[in-house]
Amino acid sequence: MKFDQNGNLVSFTGKLIHSLNKNEHALDMAASLHDHLGEVDDQMMDSASVKKRTNVLLLGDHMGDLHMSDGLNYETRISVGFLNHNIENSLDSYRKGFDIVYLDDAPMSGVVKLVSELFSPASD
What we know:
The structure is a single chain. By secondary structure, this protein is α/β, with parallel strands linked by helices. 26% of the residues lie in helices and 22% in strands. The strands form 3 sheets. A 3-stranded parallel sheet has the order 5-6-7, covered by helices on one side. A two-stranded antiparallel sheet has the order 1-2. The protein has a two-stranded antiparallel ribbon with strand order 3-4. The protein starts with a strand and ends in a 5-residue tail after the last helix.
C-alpha cells in the first residue's frame, strides 16, 4: 500500500486479494505474509507451510465466500457464516451452505470459543 504525506491510502501495489479471488490463488498472492509462519529460530519448519495444512476454518459474510477453499487439499473444513443483512430472505441458504451461522453483526467470541474447543484436550 502507498500512503501520502498525511497518512492517507492513495494506491495499492502488487496483486490484491478481494472478494472475487479469495481462494487458493490468494495463498500465492500473499506468499510474503505466510512464508515465515513456520520459522522457529530462523529455521523453516516445512510442516507449518500454509499449503500443507489439511484443516480449514472458513469465515465468510457472503455465500460466494464458501468457494474460498476451492482448490485446497483439505481433510476437514468448518465454515462459519456471518449474516448481517436481508436475514429473513437469506437465512435458509446460509444454513444450507455454512456449518455455523451468526446473525446481526455477531461478535467473534463464538468463533474464538469454537477454536478454543477444537484445541482443548479431548475428554475421555
